[in-house]
Write a structure and sequence with these properties.
Blueprint: H1 2-5, H2 8-20, E1 24-25, E2 29-30, E3 35-36, H3 38-44, H4 52-62, E4 68-69, H5 72-87, H6 97-114, H7 139-142, H8 157-180
Antiparallel strand pairs: 1-4, 2-3
């Protein structure tokens, strides 16, 4: 990630800079709006670093075609990434590898003891939604970009409907087996 590639003092300076300056995309400086890019804002606040990859990543993220003022969402996203990356403790823990392995084993055992399997068919299932990040649905912007739909389980609606129908059928069969008391069959590979 381009933000993580920046030195810590530059990220801190960029945070101060986006608070005190008008931030733009697509250029280093925009005399028309009086705005500056995040790297120049960091530079003016003591974070003197030359990382061109950040500028390219910033313009790619904002899809800048020409110099313009950054939207609130874009600045908010940059701020949250910077705050997150500054909050990371980059110091490596001291100690031996054996101590670290013993600690991991102890944590796993503690987790194993705390986790209880759900065997009851009437167990409550809680579905939690992820908090709203303020990002809008951007599919209409990406539809002309190559491979924009890489996160979907299927590329075509018919394929998605077939997958959904197969999953519903498998769930119905599983529920039927549970009601009849049949042992659960393990699918063969």
């Amino acid at each position: 990630m381009a933000v993580e590639a920046l030195p810590r003092h530059t990220r801190e300076a960029m945070l101060r800079g986006i608070d005190t300056n008008r931030i733009i995309v697509g250029a280093y400086v925009d005399s028309r709006s009086g705005g500056i890019c995040p790297m120049l804002a960091a530079h003016r606040n003591g974070g003197r670093t030359s990382v061109a990859s950040f500028a390219r990543a910033w313009d790619d993220f904002t899809d800048a075609k020409r110099p313009r003022r950054a939207t609130r969402r874009e600045v908010r996203t940059l701020r949250s990434l910077l705050e997150w990356s500054v909050g990371i403790d980059t110091s490596l823990p001291t100690g031996s590898l054996a101590e670290a392995a013993a600690q991991i084993r102890a944590e796993r055992e503690q987790f194993r003891c705390a986790a209880t399997p759900i065997d009851e068919p009437d167990a409550d299932i809680t579905i939690t939604r992820t908090p709203d990040t303020g990002d809008r649905h951007r599919a209409h912007e990406f539809r002309l970009r190559r491979d924009w739909a890489w996160m979907r389980p299927a590329r075509q609606l018919d394929e998605y409907k077939d997958l959904l129908a197969a999953a519903e059928e498998q769930l119905a069969e599983q529920n039927e087996r549970e009601l009849l008391g049949d042992p659960v069959a393990v699918p063969a590979d």
